[in-house]
């Protein structure tokens, strides 16, 4: 065929459209069409129209890397041409020349065709001698008379003739200093057939008068070494400027010694004749497809494919005709000029990315009809493992054979000529997309196709003998048809199957973007083909996918699982296989191999039991030798194992020859069991009335046939039909006779067509015609009598004037239980509906509270559908009247509920009273009534609060406000409550801004109330948990959150006196807790020797670096852990200073605003208690500060006087005059820098006790008068302030806080909350509490009552506490000194 001829489509293959019955058995249908379809090699199956499986692939996660296909490299003849042109180009490139392929008649000259035609005409010399170039041009398709022959001769002589001479195998021979160049070096453009003499070459070069330009590699040699480089042609080393060096082997040649001589220096690398021969003789790499670099998803690949096709044809993809694509495809694969590249996502394993069919893999739940498609035999995941398939007996999943492969195609992507592995069947389903064009060759022409391709492309098969097994070569079907190979075609559309038969060569291409899935399967008729395929593979030395012998033996080992036809085929194949195996073993024994050993080959991996010679997978037997234990051969190649003596070789076998007959017997018995079964079935179906068998016996025969997988012939189908008919008749009879089952059957069965009396009679006759016995036949006659009795009773019931629902229902139950078509049933049902409706209306109207609008509408709607009746019409009129009145009042009530502005209570109450007598359930009226009741209750609560003895809490008013807003009634007090709540909220927000820090975690109520978290450290979450636990332990104490309890029965909580008492109790608890915490923190400093174990600060770590001491809790804190405020002279830790400390004037302003509010707030009461506490602390603070100042001045004067006296007494000691008491601030700073806590100890002078007492008495007498005067002035000022506060307080609705609280003295002058240091403090609670300070050195304060000291003793004498007395006693024992009196001056406050 000419390369430029237009493609002619081959004839179409057969197309089958199975019915649903045929479609239900996939392999049975394929076996049915096999005689027709195997004649064409391929066929197309179009499923029933409703069979449309859903696409089950995960499109979003589907990723694949396609193959790259160059179309003109796929076709065998085109690839040969391209390879030939590559060799020509390489041949000239090695000599430094880049060839340009010529054009003739404006077309690229086919050099390969020119070479073949010239060769077929006798060669270049013959064609030139006989002047056949015009004939050559005519054979190549060029028109005569244009001098094309001469042009072809010129191109041939310039390009091809040197290459053909080179291909003849002539080599360069060297004899001494003279060389003879190969005939390849012919003068281009001249016809020279022999190599000229050496002298002539030199003269000829001179005659050409060529100006030679030396190459870069021209040898630069001196006179000493010039003889080392000799021209391999002439043997001389002179004229070194014209001596060229080969870039491959470094041999040297004179430019004028080459024939033809070089006119110009080659631009590229230059190779000598020997290197050219070596490079061109290298074998070519095997052709195969490359993988694309890019990975695609289905969407990205589809976009690329559609874009390519639309651009190529310049039209939308769906408008390109399939005929045009087909012709263009075969034009492209035959063209050496156009290089079109496409990509094909082929051989994608469904095991990796999922099948296009629904499968039961547990990864995804099947929805809807996916279950049916997942179980379908046409699902390609199920077809290889169907019962009739041979592959189901292979346990492993063979990818591509048992596991489907997926194919994502684009326009022009193709699959080349090939047959399936082991010559098996294949089936391909196109899920979606554009068509796929197929070409097929029947198995009978397979060898002819192979012979034609080898004949037309011998060069390809010489380099790749197994070329047709590589799936990389395609050949034009027209070329094959010209050589007598029958080829058939088809276009596979979406939703269609294409089946290829054993050893049927097939190829094709895709019309555009599509998605297909394919798999292999094998039936009983394949077994002979499979055995022939293994023999074919043995001759080609090709690997097997699985062992055919192993498959046969496995099926023979379980004959009962085989289909009868399959068992017969296995029996036949087993016989031939065993005969062949017996002959092979006898031949090996005759060779002299006597050693044998049992080998379980199925446990050996396939790659370890392949024949060393032919690569066949061994199973029945193999031959091994001790020289190479890992090597084995099949018995066909016993002589090719090794050269060792036969005695060293061992025959390994899977089964002994004596085991073969038993294996054959089982398969034979299975195949012959069908005859016995067929005889029994024939007798059962032909039995007369007396010899009829029971239905169960026929079922047993049918089940036996199904279990044994007998062929579905006419006898099998008849038995199945008889059993089905008998079962149907038995079921119908059972339904007719079973009244209970009749009552419980579903609605669908109730509406099905029933038997008439005539049909019932015919049914009885059918029961007796069946070839088996039906036990219910006698009872069917009794059914006829029951039907006649029902007819008589129904006529009587229908003649009654008033329908009776109970009587009619009984007749309907009886008639329905008969399961026979009765004409009286419709009339009975009609009257029963009327009777039931009337009963329902009467029952409904008897209970007015159940009569809703919807119920009345439903009754009216159901009554409209009833047949006309005077009682029904009367009830309908009554219902309609009630419904109209009810709807009118409901609309009126709804309007009142939705009215804006809302109606008053009087208006709504009048509406409720008017609608009271309507005999129906009216939800809007009830809602109106309920709203009215809520409004009354709300108003009464508001009045109770306004008329009460005290104001309500804010929470109570907020709750009332929320409830009042939701009531759809106009409430006059609502506006007043809203204003009160707004004012209270505004006061609370103002107070919060005054007290709370920015981003504070405390609420306002927590800040104003006594602390409950004293001594609790940690993060906010753990701290809140700890505080909650502490509060749970003290449930009986004061809880600020319960101040606004809304329950009315908690009056004692809302009583002001109770609130104040609870608050004071919490204050006392707070004071005790802070005292305990201070004592604990001060005690830490006594552990100086274990200071590294003591925990400080918020972080609860040991002391380090710069530390600060809190003035309240006395704990030490790291400077990096707490914020520092340079404005405050005293440091308070974050735990003690929880809020801001506003001025008293600001707080008094808040209290004045609070007094104006007609609302009680827990925060307000807490603020009042806090203010009273602060005001009561002010005089005590002033008194403590004055006392401390006086005490310090007296001590300084006394110490100074004492130091002067001591200095005067010590005349010889000059250092005493320099002694200065250290400042307390300096001592404290030193302690902080050292990381220690506590107060700095005062430095005492070492003088006797007598002088010390005299100094103290002197200092106390000086301060006595001033101290007493200030005390009296402060007491008077405090009493006056308290009296003015009491006069300003209102008589009513103001929290009555007592004027005095029980406050203990401070530990020192810097503490705000003083505590009595006595162990058994009596906690006196009076308007005036007298204090005394210890003069023994500890400086602690005590209630005079607690230590038994009167005012006179405190004023006139020094007081020394018990602890200081014990210390003085121990000191006295040591120093032998006498103690002085305990009281010497006034220490009272």
From TrEMBL:
Listed EC numbers: 1.14.11.67
Primary localisation category: nucleus
Gene3D superfamilies linked to this entry: ARID DNA-binding domain (1.10.150.60), Cupin (2.60.120.650), Zinc/RING finger domain, C3HC4 (zinc finger) (3.30.40.10)
Highest taxon of source: Eukaryota
Catalyses which reaction(s): N(6),N(6),N(6)-trimethyl-L-lysyl(4)-[histone H3] + 3 2-oxoglutarate + 3 O2 = L-lysyl(4)-[histone H3] + 3 formaldehyde + 3 succinate + 3 CO2
Pfam families linked: ARID, JmjC, JmjN, KDM5_C-hel, PHD, PLU-1, zf-C5HC2
Keyword Coiled coil carried by entry: yes
Keyword Membrane: no
Family matches, as InterPro entries: ARID_dom, ARID_dom_sf, JmjC_dom, JmjN, KDM5_C-hel, KDM5A_ARID, KDM5A_PHD3, Lys_sp_deMease-like_dom
GO cellular-component term (any): nucleoplasm
Annotated compartments: Nucleus
CDD domains the UniProt entry points to: ARID_KDM5A, PHD1_KDM5A_like, PHD3_KDM5A
Domain JmjN: from-to ranges: 13-54
GO biological process, one term: regulation of DNA-templated transcription
Class of enzymatic activity (EC top level): oxidoreductase
An example molecular function term from Gene Ontology annotations: histone H3K4me/H3K4me2/H3K4me3 demethylase activity
Cofactor: Fe(2+)
Coiled-coil regions listed in the entry: 1248-1289
Name of the protein described by the UniProt record: [histone H3]-trimethyl-L-lysine(4) demethylase
Source organism per UniProt: Oreochromis niloticus (Nile tilapia)
